[in-house]
Amino acid sequence: MYYKYTSWPFLLHVALLPLALESAGSLWVCCAISVLALAFYAALHYSRWALHQASVLTATISRKRRLHGKMLFVARKESMPDNAASTTGAQHRYYGLNGAGGVSRGAPVKLLTCLAHDRPGLALLVKKIKLVARGIFHFRRTQRWLAYWNSTPMRVELARAMPKLLPKIYRPYQSLRLRGRDRIDVLISHYDFICRHGLEPLVLSATRSPALLGSFAGKSGAVYELRLSAASPLEREGELILQLYCDQRPLFSIAFTFYNSDLHWCVGIGCLQGPKGCDAQGRVRNATRDMFGLRPKALMLRLAQELGRTCGCKKAILVGNRNRVLVRQIRTGKLLADYDDFWREMGAMRRPDGDYQISCENIRLSNPMDVPSHKRSETRKRISLTDRAIEAVLLGFNRV
Length: 400
Known about the structure:
Blueprint: H1 8-20, H2 27-78, H3 84-95, H4 122-137, H5 139-149, H6 153-161, H7 180-196, H8 200-208, E1 211-217, E2 223-229, E3 240-246, E4 249-261, E5 264-273, H9 280-290, H10 296-310, E6 315-318, H11 327-331, H12 339-345, E7 349-350, E8 356-359, H13 376-398
Helix pairs in contact: 1-2, 2-5, 4-5, 6-8, 10-13
């Protein structure tokens, strides 16, 4: 431990105090006083160091934002056309920089931004202490994370729209095989992917309420809707949640994330969740019958594969049973789904890290000629329904 030279006389006197009072018969009291003095000084020293590190983090982020703002201003000024006033106004309206709910350049995203909508009280104080402690303990990771979200106005708006996004780098995410540095790489890679494909407006809309991508009809005429959500209870298992609705009630959900793995883009799937309630099994059976024998969870996996293939992903990485992040819920019996059996049934291969992998480029398709003749008509109808669902999802993504 490092101490300033001015503190050494004080520490030396405290350390020699038991020897000076040895004849008083209170040696243990003197020792306790010495230990408490040393502990107090150490706590004071580390508190000052922590405050200094926090101020350095804040100053660094502010300096980078000012530099980025100057560069952006110069670039816009050099390339500004004659109708600069109207163009600038349109850009500010698009990025949400004006208006009552806009994002100003003087309000950067901070680590405690995720607690802006929490109620004041003891619980909020505990959350703040935890976040500050994690931010100091993972200083470099936090600095990189906040700098990323403050780099553009759209990212600032996305971070403010998803309060639970900022603390994700400190908790298990999608698969237990992802460690601290892997988690932040996956998350940054996902949002870079979103920006590269121009999906920011769709994701921002999905943070407010599930965005309707499309719909298709079943055998009975019932309408099934496909919606995209970006802020839901499944945020620990994926950044985007594709949901299948029937009768305005969620039937099945799949949580996934786009990221770069081994120099190739992939779709990481962390959750495949069915309906809740006492009638859950009945609803799934009815939907399977209404979709010509197509199981809802098989449809959701196929849709995730098709989204990945359309966006240039080569494979989908599926979380295995022992890598699921909701360990406590599994131990208490709240989660009973067996992912491993279903992944193998769908043709996925087990990876050495415990997860599974399936191709997005060579998707296994059903062939009506491989089934008995009396079932070929239903197989063709099932294939046609699957194609309609795929078309609805892809059109919804391409509308942005």
